[in-house]
Amino acid sequence: MGSQPLNPTALLAQLVECGVDFVVVGALAVGTYGEVRGTGDVDVMVPINDDANRKALDKALRKLDARKIPASEGGIEQGEPEYPTLMFQTRFGKLDILYRPDGSAPYSKVKQRAVVRTLGGQSVAVVGKDDLLRMKLAAGRPHDLQDVASLTASEKGELRRIQLTMKLLDGVAEEWAHDLTAARVALFDERARVWVQEGYVKVDARRSGLTDEQLQLWAQSLAERLHGSEILAEPACEAEITGI
Hints:
single chain, about 240 residues, alpha+beta, Beta Polymerase, domain 2, Alpha-Beta Plaits, five-stranded mixed β-sheet, about 35% helix
């Protein structure tokens, strides 16, 4: 099966028909809040360790003629082993299955706070705006940060400086801690400075289009991610935000 044109309505309808429990996230969710941008896939979050839902999802994937996209074709399995992101090509376009997106609460909380929206005539659960913003800030890619700016009443023209200090885990290799932090921060600001000093990893970055609160959320998400990678002693950071 080659790459198929995306048909979100048909794809979501098949998931609903097979009884899959899911919440729409990603660009389609952004679009439901009035900020529409193009997307090449459908992203849905599903519960972890739910055997009945796994069987329903497997049934839907069979009916969709789904083929898992291997790494050689740009597919990935990211996140912790118990929280993978799986990518499939289906007869209605690309489908990404997420078990715990970056920055998300457990599925039960995300589903509880979700809103029901009609997408192409199909009623589905869509991630709540606050949860969506947290996911976008945690993912931290340029288009995610653009989505955050467009979804909120931020002062889009104002450049802000954020300086972070995070305590390293005892015994962690400083070069590895530096490189992993720098790779993540570069998604936020490719010109950011990252260095290690006296047991701490420090960041000096700049970004426009986000409020101070959103910058704090990004900083906290970064600290939580680095702590999960066993770099930081605790999932917290000191953040100083100033104007430029």
